[in-house]
Design brief:
This protein has six helices and ten strands. The protein is an alpha+beta fold. It has two domains: 99 residues, no CATH class; 69 residues, Glutaredoxin (3-Layer(aba) Sandwich). The radius of gyration is 19 Å and the shape is elongated.
Length: 174
Amino acid sequence: MLYTLFYKEKKVKMSKLDLIIVGNIVIYPALAKFLKRSHYYMKYDQEEERITFSVNDGDGGRCLFEVRNASHENALKLAKELGLKSLDRDPEHACFWSKYYEVLHLFHDGSEEAEWLRIEIFKLGIACRVRKTSRIWALHMGQYSYGPTMWTAAQALEEIKRYNHEEPTLDVVF
């Protein structure tokens, strides 16, 4: 199921054998909620022969699925297919991989400037969680915050363009 989602999006024709990593996959319900808008990481436990795929979107880490009775080769193949990278000096022996998608948080005060910024972010296709606020608008991007006291919406948009190169999906919550 996971591979069907990824491959349909990439429009890659794969044989059924290419999609098989290993049996006994446990997929947690949180998977659909977090695809393409978070920090993904995967680890391989050599003693238990288990691959664990997790996500952290700022609300704490959550396990999305496990693959049990898996070899290290299975873990390497899964990491490669999901586009995860290892910081290990020897990638062939790595047991931890990750991929980070920036998620913006726009606190929308109903002003024209905040609405303009929301629309421009939407046009870029960058993941953005929009929440209503009674205070002035604010944009949080990773560890950085932008607001009208020091940044115009246009300046904040330039920072967004500078730091975001991939195009995850938009997530709006009101």
